[in-house]
Write a structure and sequence with these properties.
Elements: H1 11-24, E1 28-31, E2 45-49, E3 52-58, H2 67-78, E4 83-86, H3 89-95
């Protein structure tokens, strides 16, 4: 890696930042854990506020969801639940505000 360039943040770091921002914005936040009892491919974070819920799959910049994750995100979206892939905390802030506050991500 060239001198002076930064390594992308770890997924754990991005997840922790996203969760902290969501809590600051008044969302109830739950990190899912990959156990033998959880569904394969379930997104990393569930947020709920004012009767609305959304799922977030957290990835390092440049990484893509697995086939199982894409399948599970499609299932959730087909059930009417918003789902997104987050690679940096700012995306969370822009994407998950209520519709009357929503701004366009660039």
């Amino acid at each position: 890696m060239p001198e002076g360039s930064k390594k992308p943040p770890l997924e754990k770091t991005i997840t922790n930042n996203v969760m902290a921002i969501a809590k600051q914005l008044g969302w109830w936040v739950m990190k899912t854990h990959g156990t033998t009892y959880s569904l394969r491919g379930i997104p990393d974070v569930l947020v709920i506020r004012d009767g609305r819920s959304a799922w977030m799959e957290v990835k390092r910049p440049g990484e893509e969801p697995t086939k199982a994750q894409v399948h599970r995100m499609r299932e959730l979206a087909d059930a009417g639940c918003p789902v997104c892939v987050v690679t940096r905390p700012l995306m969370h802030v822009i994407f998950w505000r209520p519709s009357h506050e929503r701004t366009v991500a660039g």
